[in-house]
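tool=predict chain=A
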Amino acid sequence: MTGQKTEREPLFRIVKRDNVPRWEAWLIRIGAVVAALLVSGLVSAILAGGSAFGTFFSGLFEGVFGTPRRILNLFQGTAILLCIALAVAPAFKMRFWNIGAEGQVLMGGLGCVVCIEYLGGQISNGLLIFVMFLASVAFSVVWSVIPAIFKAKWRTNETLFTLMMNYVAMQLVAICIFVWVPSGSGVLGALPYGNFPLIGGNRYVLNIIIVAIATVILFVYFRFSKHGYELSVVGESENTAKYVGINVKKVIIRTMVLSGVLCGLAGLLLVGGTSYTLSTGTVDGRGFTAILVAWLGKFSPFAMAFTSLLYVFIDQGAKFVATNVGVGEAFSDIITGIFFFLVIGCEFFINYKIKFRQRKKTTVENTAEEAVA
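tool=predict ok
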């Protein structure tokens, strides 16, 4: 006898998408940004009352574009964050999980302050800035190459290694500040030497120009240089790289040297062109935020410029809203977290799709025992 038997599949399953059209991918991303803004406005209304929903959107743009000073701050914040993202991108592209940009940038800043403390006032400001650049690069490169050497020679875990070196860097900075500030206040104060010159009477302009140049250089390095090609091959497969004759150990160390140079540049921009001082909180978490920015930008320098701008726009605007509405300093962190959670989540729907269960019937032979039953 024959009978009908229903085969049950899972309620849904995740299937990888193939060849998603670019327009569809960007449509999903734009939808995620719109959804993130609406959810952020809703959270604002819940925390501060219903009228805050509209205030959130007006305040978001007013806090960024309300005055020329705020616009300059937007591009300055983008430049610093982008510079650090450029520093971590080569390592991540090579699948070297460098979580130590926070400490590497801080060490670059320490190199700058060492020069200011012992050479400030004795040489011209232009020469001092050049020496600061050399020192900041040297300090950051050393801090970057140490975990690279251990990874290349002894296969240590670079994630833990670079992460722990962040805290060592912070303590070194704290010790140096203690030596330089005999009063014991732990505050270095504004440094009178080594400050970047103003352009058009404005601060930060030189920072923005320098980072723009660095972005173009790194794009050319990735796209057209032999070293950039080798870096990509090592990231795809170390075995393949070895098979085609690439020295993997050399590439790892060389790439981290490049990361160190860019972290040193970021340290110089923070000390000489932004805050004019140094503390353990000078980098202010940008070393970790830069990883998010680089990943969202797919490690493409120009795409990272856009994601950096987007992050700073949301963060700066949300801080302005928090001040006006009176919901506390943590509000901007909540909004930024919601926004990028949804933006990152949309990448799932670009790469995968959800297929729900379908019922289908198949004809099977019933056994004699089933027939008797």
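The longest strand covers residues 2-7. Confidence is low (pLDDT under 50) at residues 361-373.
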